[in-house]
């Protein structure tokens, strides 16, 4: 299961044209992501959280960062597209001031796992209300943000604030762990995220112990990125 995919990743020969192994390629990305967080992403999030940037400025800057730097898979449907849809629908339904407040509260790093559960639940309730208001006004939920995007969207910002505590809820990793029979997700988004976090913590310990190499959350991600048959988000 999990150890088998770890060995597939660790033992894979160099890949043309770079002639670097997946481990070498991912080590470069790992360092790049850490540098991006420290120099660009963390300051961006902090500026928004303390009220120095408006929601529009924040969204524009986050999008600009991800267009310039491809290392997190945030431009897909559960990241930037979700962000655009949420703000656009909130604009159309007079929920814009509330949207700013809800996003600010939701992306702030939780104090603990109970905080993560409640922040996801509260944000899910808001996204649901935006969808309902849009449906009432427009007669459709077409173009509305999906609640399924919430764990990925929020955990991306949480890991920017502490990448050693909060793993990103990648769909690729989610599906890979389901296929390996490591868990059975429920319909409860907050509980799913906390279970996902616990699995990542366990895999960090297991992969480090069995390989003799230091693994962290990004290392576990890289195993699933390399071996998973799914998109990176």
Structure description:
The protein is mostly helical and 233 residues long. Helices cover 68% and strands 0% of the residues. It has 10 helices and no strands. α1 (2-11) packs across α9, α1 (2-11) crosses α10 and α5 packs antiparallel against α6 (113-138). The longest helix is centred in the first third of the chain and has 28 residues, at 22-49. The protein is globular. The two termini are 21 Å apart. The model is unreliable at 229-233 (pLDDT under 50).
Query: Distance between termini?
Result: 21 Å
Query: What oligomeric state is this?
Result: single chain
- Treating each run of at least 4 consecutive H or I residues as one helix, how many helices? 10
Provide the helix percentage: 55-70%
| Structural class computed from helices and strand pairing | mainly alpha
Tell me, rounded to a whole number, the average pLDDT.
Answer: 94
| Integer-rounded radius of gyration | 18 Å
């Amino acid at each position: 299961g999990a150890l088998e995919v770890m060995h597939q990743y660790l033992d894979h020969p160099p890949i043309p044209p770079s002639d670097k192994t997946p481990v070498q390629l991912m080590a470069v990305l790992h360092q790049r992501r850490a540098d991006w967080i420290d120099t660009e992403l963390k300051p961006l999030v902090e500026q928004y959280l303390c009220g120095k940037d408006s929601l529009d400025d924040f969204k524009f800057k986050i999008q600009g960062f991800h267009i310039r730097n491809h290392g997190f898979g945030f431009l897909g449907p559960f990241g930037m597209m979700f962000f655009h849809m949420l703000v656009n629908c909130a604009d159309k339904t007079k929920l814009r001031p509330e949207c700013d407040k809800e996003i600010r509260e939701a992306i702030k790093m939780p104090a603990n796992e109970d905080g993560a559960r409640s922040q996801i639940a509260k944000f899910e309730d808001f996204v649901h209300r935006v969808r309902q208001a849009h449906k009432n006004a427009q007669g459709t939920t077409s173009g509305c943000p999906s609640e399924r995007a919430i764990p990925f969207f929020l955990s991306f910002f949480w890991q920017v604030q502490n990448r050693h505590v909060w793993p990103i809820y990648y769909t690729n990793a989610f599906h890979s762990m389901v296929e390996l029979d490591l868990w059975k997700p429920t319909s409860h988004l907050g509980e799913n995220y906390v279970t996902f976090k616990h699995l990542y913590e366990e895999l960090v310990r297991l992969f480090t112990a069995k390989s003799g190499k230091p693994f962290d959350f990004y290392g576990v991600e890289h195993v699933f990125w390399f071996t998973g048959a799914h998109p990176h988000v």
